[in-house]
Amino acid sequence: MAERQGRKESMKDLETLRHSAAHLMAHAVLELYPGTQVGIGPAVEHGYYYDFLRDDPFTPEDLAAIEEKMREIVRADVAIEKVAVSKEEAVKLFDQMGQKLKVELILEKAGEQVTCYRQGDFVDFCLGPHMASTGEIQHFKLLSVSGAYWKGDEKGSQLQRIYGTAFFSDSDLKDYLDLLEEAKKRDHRKLGQELDLFSFDEDLGGGLILWHPRGAVIRHEIESYWWEEHVKDGYEFLNTPHIAKLDVWRRSGHTEYYDAMYPPILSDGIEYEIKPMNCPFAMMIYNSRQRSYRELPLRWAEMGTVYRYERSRVLHGLMRVRGFTVDDAHIFCTAEQLEPEIRKVIDLALRIFETFGFTEYDIFLSTCPEKYCGSSEDWIRATDSLRNALEKAGLTFEVDEGEGVFYGPKIDIKFKDTLGRSWQCTTIQLDFNLAERFHLSYIGEDGQTHRPFLIHRAVLGSLERFFGILIEHYNGNFPLWLAPVQAVIIPIADRHTDYALSIHQRLRERGLRSDVDSRREKVGYKIRDAETNKIPLILIVGDKEMERKNASLRIHTEGDKGEIQTDDFLEKVQEFIENKTLKAIF
Ligand SMILES: [Zn+2]
Ligand SMILES: [Zn+2]
């Protein structure tokens, strides 16, 4: 616990540093480009930003100049001072400076006393805290500029948002910049195109994904594995429609509190809604007949495709889309079954992620917020079950006190990829609201009617997003079991093609995905082509190999492995695939 406390503390310090770097940046911008208006400048997950209102767009040269000016102010080691003024004075002050956006913020947010921070000529309306002087901000870098709206309102002024980052040491900054560089190389949008995995089409609409054969086969492998693991844990599977009468979403409450729904479709005078979630369908199946305690727990899983309206500016490759498939499940159980059921989901999630090579994660437990639905007794029971399940599994976790959603407590698991980046994927969420709205019930051992506990859970989260994470995690070098083409056979000359085809045939018979590259190109060219396509295994066959009934093996990213007996090869490959081995060693 002490260690975790320490981490939270140091994150706070880092936030202060980064927010101070945001002030420093705004200070530099105003010195270089007088007349620019400043918006807001918070610290964010990996750095900070500041929004500016200015007619001319900031160029990369401008960013370099701003950074240089920032260093100048750092060298001058200007004190950062807190000043308290009355609201009236503050409005006057910022009005005189021509900072209309700040005036608007002060009028909106400030009390009678306003805290401002001053460093030299630069003053900002802000609660703080900050570093003591600009000299303390040593290791920073400006990263990019993008568009933003004043107060996030698309009808509001269009601002320019400059992103930067700052750290306490030069080595931390360098590590982070290296990571960004590596992440750029692995960008799933770039690899997705290069490896022919998926695409988008303007004519189709933003955020809708076209899975190409090579992407679809990976998806199929993921889904099959997912299905097998769920069968092992006693899940059953559902299939539900993509649209439903608007009344269904009224009943579930989505029309009231969920704002990412597409507008309804009117058909025969009835309003239908494309589904943003799968939950109500599972409730309807549950309610299709009277349930008994003998049936519980019920574990119903579904690869359910949903559609949500996301603003076009937030769409991002596979990570943020408008149509995606959730590996959803709903668990209906009794109070006694809660803890073991939650434990089962945690184990399942960790097991599945380990297969894909994710072994590090952070776990968060979110507890009861101020406003909640359901009885406090149920909340306590559910929260204790979540906590006990984690503790009994021997897992460390952080508690986000009061951060639960209004309908129930939850566990979130964030997995770390090979670059150390965290991805929120698994969620285990109790829901007292939906259970109530759909009047879920079962007949207990006592012959009385009871309400079951309802758990929503997703392990991978969105299949599309998970695919994007995987592409970057593996840098496109998929392990054998996932690789779209697992092996390519390259005949050296035309007279070796039949032999190559015979190996290909044997691979196919064993369910392997192989190709023969019989193009009239040089062997070196074909090898390079296979490497570019990141095909894990390359078999080269010529006179020598034909005579000895073997092949020369080359492994992607590793190079030549020498001659290998075809039978041995087939056996090993099959074993690697069956075991979902992350790294094939011959
Ligand atoms: Zn501030
Ligand atoms: Zn659900």
List keywords for this structure.
38% helix; alpha+beta; 18 helices; 586 residues; 26% strand; binds zinc ion; 5-stranded antiparallel sheet; disordered N terminus; 8-stranded mixed sheet
3D architecture notes:
Helices cover 38% and strands 26% of the residues. The longest helix is centred in the first third of the chain and has 31 residues, at 2-32. Helix 1 packs across helix 2 (60-75). Strand 25, helix 15 and strand 26 form a beta-alpha-beta unit. The strands form seven sheets. An eight-stranded mixed sheet has the order 11-16-17-24-21-20-18-19. By secondary structure, the protein is of the alpha+beta class. The protein binds zinc ion (2 copies). Residues 279, 328, 330, 456 line the site of one zinc ion.
Number of helices: 18
Portion of residues within helices: 25-40%
Bound molecules: zinc ion
Got a strand count?
Answer: 29
Which shape, going by the Cα principal axes? globular
Q: State the strand order across the main sheet.
A: 11-16-17-24-21-20-18-19
| Main β sheet profile | 8 strands, mixed
In percent terms, what proportion of residues is strand? 25-35%
The gyration radius over C-alpha positions equals 29 Å
Low-pLDDT stretches: 1-5
- Overall structural class, as computed from helix and strand content, comes to alpha+beta
Mean pLDDT: 94
Tell me the span between the first and last alpha carbons.
Answer: 44 Å
